[in-house]
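Q: What structure does this chain adopt?
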Amino acid sequence: MRNSLLIVSLSLLWWKTAADNLYQGCDCGFVNENGLFTNYWMSDFSNYPNDIHRDKEFYVANYTIEAKYPGTFPRSFDPKNVNVINNALQLAVTIGDDPQCGAIGTKRQDLFYGSFRAYIKTTGVPGTVSAFFLYGNDSEIDMETLSALNPPETYFAIHPGLTDAQSGRASALTHTNYMLNYTPSEVKEASLINLKIVLSPLYTNESAQQEYHEYRFDWIPGLAIFYVDGKEANRLYTNIPTVPGRILVNHWTDGNANFSQGPPKQNAFMEVQNITLFFNVSTSTNSSANNMACQSSHQACSIDVTTAESMPTPTPSVSQSGAVSLQSSLALLSLPATLIAAILCPYFL
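A:
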């Protein structure tokens, strides 16, 4: 027993040290084409030694969301449906008289702008929704993949959402679809909410359910940018959240014939290989959380947009003194000065 505890402790120490080394080696922040972010967090479930239900970094959902529409049923999230199995975080939707769902999120709720990504394998069982999203004070940025659709589609949404006055359906200003596989000559309107589909031949229907794919969104003031497998898929500008929140991953069904469909006819499993977050923090919760030491690197590290586990390579964006160099950041990012100021100024005043 002592030996097994020692092995777990050493493994956990290695996992924590690897993340700490990355953060300390990039103590001038992390940068990509959309912004500069001061904080880094990653959980790699392919090499995860901890008990997910006791991990202080995570919040495992245990609640019920009441039915939203006639003919649907409540979404009940059971901690038993959240487990790390076979080198992956597994979120289950289990059948029965009352289907049960699975959800997990970051314990911290002070994430305020950032670049967020997860490697996800969706289920092949029709009737569920695999979601990766930001939530804070009823504001959301959502990426949801529906297993009932063939070819598969991922929905991008901002909440609170808008409704189109003429059709009565969700407005394209806050909701859009992304078809993951298509015939090149095919152009059509989405059958569910009548929004134009963004087309991209990224992978087949089977691939979405048999392989991991990177789902990512970048959140900056006034803009949410969505990516699938490193390729930009869409941008939304309306009702973008202006309050901090947490990142969540969930797997659910509610029997909605116009969206999730279901319930599934058998247990369904969504798998997550890793979650990687580059972000700033609300100064209302921690006034020093966005300060950058700039002792090790003296410059921001570039965010790797394809591999969540790789070490970012240095990219000049911060002066040797450790102060943010807006001139070099602008040259690097090709972003308007007003946007850079909106991202950075609240954190360095």
